[in-house]
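Example 4.3 (complexes with small molecules)
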Amino acid sequence: MRDWDRRANRIASAVALVVGILSAPVPAQTRTILAGRVLDVETGALRPATLIRVEGGLVVDVVSAEGRDRPADVVDLGDLTVLPGLIDTHTHVCDETHTGDRWDPWTLPAPAFGIIGVVNARKLLDAGFTTIRNVSEPFYAGVAVRDAIARGDVAGPRVYASGPMISMTGGHGDWGNWMGPPHDDSTPAEAVADGVDEVRRETRDQLRHGVDWIKVAATGGFASAGTQPGAASYTVDEMRAAVEEAAKRGRFVAAHAHGAAGIANAVAAGVRSIEHGSRLDDESIRLMRQHDVVLVADLFGAHYSLVEGNEDWSEKGITDNAAEYEAYAERVARAHRAGVRLAFGTDAGATPHGRGAEQFALMVDAGISPADAIRSATVVAAELLGVGEQAGSIAVGKWADLIAIRGDPLEDVSVLTEVRFVMKGGEIHRWERD
Ligand SMILES: [Zn+2]
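Answer. The structure with zinc ion bound is encoded below.
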């Protein structure tokens, strides 16, 4: 063997060794959480001190701590209350629309959205949201953020990502309709499609880009000048094309819908969730129940823009912001009482990232019990995402996604805004000790 051959061989085997070490499965961290109390979100009961054993990113044992020795690998959370990681099913992690006039997406290069997403993803995880469904984002930035988090490159929740919201020409997702003409017609920042064939093609294209969800605009919106929030946009057939294409890949469709006509169209088309539903009526409730469509009611989003944001909505036909919010809250509570499943979603992006847990108190104010409000962000949210077997409660075999707070969230849900401990996939992301 010539000298350089031998050297090449040595280099090759060194590389193989390093690659072998790097790609060898990292021994999964085994830990035992000692929780002061555990909230059983399924039953709404608080359990006393509990040991939760975590291995390979999963919960492998949940037992009462009473009379048991502390294992050597114990993570003692003192008197903190542990519950499953929260799930926000309506976020825009790469958006900062809540900053109002300072947010001008046209001036941003596409990669900026990914960077913004990385910053916000950490804020969401810090706040206890271990999973999000990201509904509508320009440039597939949410897909890129999802993958960076999944690789472990950056901190953030598990992300179920959609592409840009598919919208008709002149609809809620057509930027050119309300922000001036686009700089570049080839930009994938938005997804304008008309007619069954175009919607079908756009849906297929988005699936090719690796999205987990399809989002369509079934009605106009509040933030887009030139559209009427209550007015239907897509036809049943157009949305059904999206539902059919998504179903071929085991994916689902979320429909942005405020008014009753658009909700009825979206439900008839077979969507899995209605986003916002701010002007739903009794017929919407009946249809959503009949077809088991989940309502993602962003009370925090509405409260932020209508009450806290104190914007002038008069040009959009809203003369009394507070009354508009109260009417929405009342409709959401009515839908919940009638048996419509509620999944927690805050419109993060349109609201400040990291403040989503403030929605729990708004839900309780609307007449929803604390246990049901928490269920919307755990059990029901996981079911909506199709991961009811993996997430949404603390149980053997599920993901070790846990948060801990001080106090009793059943007595005061606002304690959920101060998360002290966050574990995702068995790894401690944050632990604020006294
Ligand atoms: Zn939204």
